[in-house]
Amino acid sequence: MIVTETGRTVMKKLPEVTLAFWIMKIAATTLGETAGDLFAQTLKLGYFLTTIALFAVFVVTLIVQLRSRHYNPFFYWTVILSTSTAGTTMSDFMNRDASGEYLAAGTTSLGWGPQGLGLGYPTGAAILISLLIAIFAVWKVSGQTFAIRDITTFRGEALFWAAILVSNTLGTSMGDFLADSSGLGYAGGALLVTGLLAVLLAVKWVPAVPNVLLFWLAFVLTRPLGATAGDFLTKPVAKGGLALGTIGSSMVLLAVLLGLIAYAYRQENHRRLQGTFRAGLG
User: Which residues cross the membrane (predicted)?
Assistant: First the structure.
């Protein structure tokens, strides 16, 4: 909870940004990549139909999160996962076309719906970057804080989730570009993004660089890390992957994420008990 300058107590609905937060973010984004490919390619639902279905799931999970009165780890990370999964197929639908190998593999078995706009990574990324800048501009004008630890209003949280959805879609495009078009491959792309995240960690100790800026840069970069890591797990060995498949990889990653959510519940309950105890002493 947060006590405002007027003495009013408001409940936080977003988590503390700790090492555990970033581990869970990477797990969720990696699962989002494998799960998105599972629905669109392995189950052959196609990008169009899968994107519609996953966006609907995102809306439902977002409503549950927005209606919650306090931070609930399961609600929060379900929305993060839904944005990552929807972002995977949204990015693929925007950037690829039906003549590509990935779309051929993911042709819908239902036989309807366009299978890609074919915008390409540069155009798709430019659109998403412009949209993300527009969201941040509206956010700035609204007077809401950019700091995740201080977001307590409905408007601030709605802007936060809009930025999350777009940044996860943008991150998918970045990851696919690194893996498919840059020549780095899946493992090389993941290593490059890991190196960039290490640079951000080092810059964190530079006083002149705002922590809020570093948070959002890291948040965007963890998505291409998850995208390249997910592809590395599932793609064929001949293409530089481990060929573990989308089903097996998704099941393992889901188990890991659920375990981390259970840990987050334990930490949150401990934090609340401490707060109640201190309030009683006061």
Answer: 45-67, 74-94, 119-139, 159-178, 184-206, 213-230, 242-265
- Rounded CA-CA distance 212/215 in Å is 5
For the chain, the domain total comes to 1
The answer as to whether 134 is a domain residue is yes
Residue 4 lies in a domain: no
Q: For the chain, what is the radius of gyration of the CA atoms?
A: 19
pLDDT in tens, 180-235: 888 899 999 999 999 999 999 999 999 899 999 999 999 999 999 999 999 999 99
Q: What is the pLDDT of residue 5?
A: 40
Q: Which amino acid is at 46?
A: G
Question: CB atoms < 10 A from the CB of 57, how many?
Answer: 16
* 118-138 b/e (C-beta count within 10 Å ≥ 16 → b): bbbbeebbebbeebbeebbee
Is position 3 within any domain? no
Q: How far apart are CA 214 and CA 221, in angstroms?
A: 10
Asked if 223 and 189 count as a contact pair (C-beta separation under 8 A), the reply is: no
* Interatomic CA distance for residues 240 and 236, integer angstroms: 7
**Element holding 263 (H helix, E strand):** helix 246-281
Range of the domain at 110: 12-277
Which structure tokens are listed for 191? 């290593």
For residue 110, give the amino acid letter.
L
State the Cα–Cα distance between residues 91 and 80, nearest whole angstrom: 16
Predicted TM-score (pTM) of the model is: 0.89
Whether residue 2 is contained in a domain is answered as: no
String of b and e for 235-244 (b: at least 16 CB within 10 Å)? beeeebbeee
Spatial contact of 147 and 216, defined as CB atoms under 8 Å apart: no
